[in-house]
Write a structure and sequence with these properties.
This protein has a nine-stranded mixed sheet, sandwiched between helices. It has a two-stranded antiparallel sheet with strand order 7-8. The chain is globular. Helices cover 40% and strands 18% of the residues. Helix 2 packs parallel to helix 13. The protein has one domain: Alpha-Beta Complex (Inosine-uridine Nucleoside N-ribohydrolase, Chain A). The longest helix has 21 residues. It has 14 helices and eleven strands. The chain has 325 residues and is an alpha/beta fold.
């Protein structure tokens, strides 16, 4: 029975920078019978890469998933730039709401994040779904290590971009894309089967203050754990957006990988602005126009960009699974 169940599950690698909503997404994935999480790779973003690795190991131990390998990713952007600004004002200095989690007993594996990604799509060609919840540095590096990576990976679900709305780092850019625009542009145009979930979608999927209180009162181990970290995240949303709710960015992206039918999509080429005032801007060409002159947009494989979401059902699924015993 177990072997049959495993054969029907999606093999998933989560590329992550935990992060409070990353923690929600990882625990959600562990709670989802549709998924077989075969590894976590870590990146910078909400926290430096080393802290992301520690948090990923901690979350695996919390969930009783010590057998899930954690591979530490690159410490800098694809072009070697150190990210000096991290989102401690959103997630706390430890990335988990200043809850000071215990030092994990496990250690990351010897392979780097990009090496692990390459190895797993080689081991399971056409079977591995990658869910990218931070800057796309590790995936871009995997493309440099193996030019056939786009053909071997089953699909890639990306949390990133601000399509048709303002960004959350500045009016032009969303945080994950802003973190490594060169890597993002490389990934978006690599030819893999890609679905992008932007903040135009994730700002519609929320958990209210009352629902956070309910999460803390439930008997779920994960619910009680998350409720300790979520007040810090909630306070950020209250200050920055004047809203009695938190945005469920990362969990929504995991749900999209579980059940893509809960969203609708448009297809087109996406490029990323890499210089100037609008660095990190995601530009989406969803037209069918045939351009008179060849440009950098031509001969690029279209990707899917989420344009609508069944926000209520996505939020309910997230909450139900995080509250499950």
């Amino acid at each position: 029975m177990n072997s049959i169940k495993q054969n029907t599950q999606k093999k998933m690698i989560i590329d992550t920078d935990p992060g409070i909503d990353d923690a929600m997404a990882i625990l959600l994935a562990f709670q989802s019978p549709e998924l077989n999480v075969i590894g976590l790779t870590t990146t910078f973003g909400n926290v430096p890469t080393a802290v992301a690795t520690r948090n990923a190991l901690h979350l695996c131990e919390l969930a009783g998933k010590e057998d899930v390998p954690v591979a530490q990713g690159l410490l800098t952007t694809l072009r070697g730039v150190v990210k000096l600004r991290v989102a401690d004002f959103v997630h706390g200095s430890d990335g988990l709401g200043n809850t000071n989690p215990p030092e994990p007993k496990q250690r990351p594996i010897d392979l780097s994040g990009p090496e692990f990604l390459v190895a797993k799509v080689q081991e399971f060609p056409g079977e591995v779904t990658v869910v990218a919840l931070g800057p796309l540095t590790n995936i871009a590096k995997a493309l440099e290590l193996d030019s056939n990576f786009p053909k071997k990976v089953k699909d890639i679900f990306i949390l990133g971009g601000a399509f048709f709305v303002n960004g959350n780092v500045n009016p032009a850019a969303e945080a994950n894309i802003f973190g490594d625009p060169e890597a993002a542009d490389m990934v978006f145009t690599c030819g893999a089967n890609i679905t992008v979930i932007g903040i135009n979608i994730t700002h519609q999927v929320v958990m209210t203050g009352r629902e956070i209180e309910e999460l803390g009162k439930c008997n779920s181990k994960f619910g009680k754990y998350l409720c300790k970290a979520l007040p810090f995240y909630y306070d950020y949303h209250l200050r920055s957006y004047n809203t009695d709710a938190i945005y469920l960015h990362d969990p929504t992206t995991v749900v999209a990988a579980i059940d893509p039918s809960l969203l609708t999509y448009a297809e087109g080429v996406v490029r990323v602005q890499q210089e100037g005032l609008c660095r990190g801007l995601t530009l989406f060409n969803s037209t069918t126009k045939k351009w008179a002159q060849p440009t950098e947009w031509c001969n690029k494989q279209p990707i899917k960009v989420a344009i609508t979401v069944d926000a209520e059902n996505v939020a309910n699924l997230i909450k139900a699974r995080l509250m499950a015993l």
